[in-house]
Amino acid sequence: MIYRTFKDQKLSQLGFGCMRFTTDPATGEIDQAKVNAMFDLAIKGGVNYFDTAYPYLDGKSELAMAEALSRYPRESYYIADKFPGHSLTAPIDNIALFHVSLKKCRTDYFDFYLMHNITEWSVKYYESEEYHIIPDLLQMKKEGKIRNLGFSFHGGPELLEAFLTRHEGQFDFVQIQLNYLDWTLQDAKTKYEIIVRHGLGVWVMEPCRGGKLAVLPENESAKLKALQRDNSSMETAGNAEAFPSDASYAFRFLQNLPGIKVILSGMNEIFQVEDNLRTFREEWPLTAEERAVLFDIAENLKKGVPCTACRYCCAGCPVGLDIPYLLQCYNDFKFATTLAPSMRLDGLDEEKRPAACIGCGQCSRACPQGIDVPAALAELAQMYEKAPHWSEQVKLRQKIIQKDLGKES
Questions:
Q1: By C-alpha distance, which of 153, 205, 212 is closest to 181?
Q2: Which class for 221: exposed (0-12), middle (13-18), buried (19 or more C-beta within 10 A)?
Q3: Which residues have C-beta within 8 Å of that of residue 223, sequence separation ≥ 6?
Q4: Is the dihedral of CA 231, 291, 267, 282 positive or negative?
Q5: 50 phi and psi angles, rounded to 5 deg
Q6: Secondary structure class of 358 (helix, strand, coil)
């Protein structure tokens, strides 16, 4: 197993993400026996980092993870959990909810604890004096109930830079969505560089983009198989017995980045655990040719517009839209309909959202890439209207939060 040292802690670079456990479609109950078997195999292979969150699997992930880990000494593994500030609609007793998670995870402290899902929409709640989230979590850290405090982030680079600057010295690590597709699609490269420049550890979520990079289209996967026939890196890394999977290339791309301490994989099948253990058994750096092929595949997977964020379009916009920001959301939506770009648009005032475009065409005339910006913004407005919205998810999660706080009171 590859290990990374972070503040005198020896962390397995492969972390076990507990968001995608197999559940019964009828009851929603987690297959605990399967979780136990996957954890046993992962721990035997050297994994010592396990990541859950209060809302995962309707609050059941914490319980399933704790059950599986209860068969091992507490000092032999690290637990990461998350505070659901992005799911609140009013101030609550943050410390009481924090203790709910401690109880569910059968522990007296969290090795790593994160503020969950900071975006342009949720940041106002996390920084609200009324909600008092950051001071309460810093108090839990002072009391030793949080060993390392961080946050997961789905916003843009500008927000990340501003947030870290405002809270310099308060956080230890940041978890971002990072993979060879989002390196450019979501500008994860810049986010990675910002975190490193602030001296914090980089944690990675969605290394395979929800499985889309684990099972590539046949024509793209063929490019990787062609590489393998001529590449000796498999033998030199001791991996000759394992014909590399598409997923292994996604993980190896991340292994090349020195600032990354933990790479989370939401494993829900035994074969995924086995494959990942092979990939992380020892250092297996990408060759320059492999890296070039991955970036070629990434470009072919994209379906949006070639915006370079030069901002020439912004100067003459009569309604003052941040067009590169909107086009980044557009490109994200074009690849896959997810909550992330929807939440970023939720964070904008209504008059700054794509529907505010009046279609004057000034932006297109100024665009060096020749992008039909009004057409893209009109399509974005339609996608945003039809997309899932976080406000609906919050209603469901509020029921769980209130139920748990009621139990504690």
A1: 212
A2: middle
A3: 293, 296, 297
A4: positive
A5: -130, 125
A6: coil
Instruction: Quote the CA–CA distance of 357 and 326 in Å, as a whole number.
Output: 11
> β-strands 201-205, 260-265: how paired?
parallel
Provide the pLDDT for residue 340.
87
| pTM of the entire predicted model | 0.90
What are 263-305's pLDDT values in tens digits? 999 999 999 999 999 999 999 889 999 999 999 999 999 999 9
Evaluate whether 323 touches 363 at the Cβ level (below 8 Å): yes
Q: How many CB atoms lie within 10 A of CB 292?
A: 11
Tokens 């912004």 sit on residue = 314
Q: List the beta bridge partners of residue 118.
A: 153
- Calpha distance 224→249 (Å, rounded): 8
Q: What is the pLDDT of residues 334-370, one digit of tens each?
A: 998 888 899 899 989 999 999 999 999 999 999 999 9
Token pair 């890394």 is found at 237
Place of tokens 């648009």: 345
Residue 28 is predicted with a pLDDT of 86
Which is nearest to 110 in space by CA: 57, 168, 51, 58?
51
Find tokens 């991955």 and name the residue: 294
Q: Where are the beta strands (DSSP E) in 42-156?
A: 49-51, 78-83, 110-118, 146-153
Per-residue confidence (pLDDT) for residue 241, from 0 to 100: 47
Q: 205 by DSSP, 3-state: which?
A: strand
Provide the token pair at 18. 């507990």
Q: Report mean pLDDT in 10-residue bins for the chain, 409 residues.
A: 97 97 90 98 98 94 98 98 93 96 98 96 96 98 98 96 98 98 96 98 96 94 85 49 82 95 96 96 92 96 92 94 95 88 91 96 94 96 89 78 72
Residue with tokens 């954890």, as numbered in its chain: 39
Q: Which CATH number fits domain 3-294: 3.20.20.100, 3.30.1490.20, 3.60.15.10, 1.20.120.640?
A: 3.20.20.100
Tell me the pairing of strands 201-205 and 14-17.
Answer: unpaired
CATH 3.20.20.100 boundaries in the chain = 3-294
Bridge partners, 83 (sequence order): 115
Question: Within a 10 A sphere around the Cβ of 325, how many other Cβ atoms?
Answer: 20
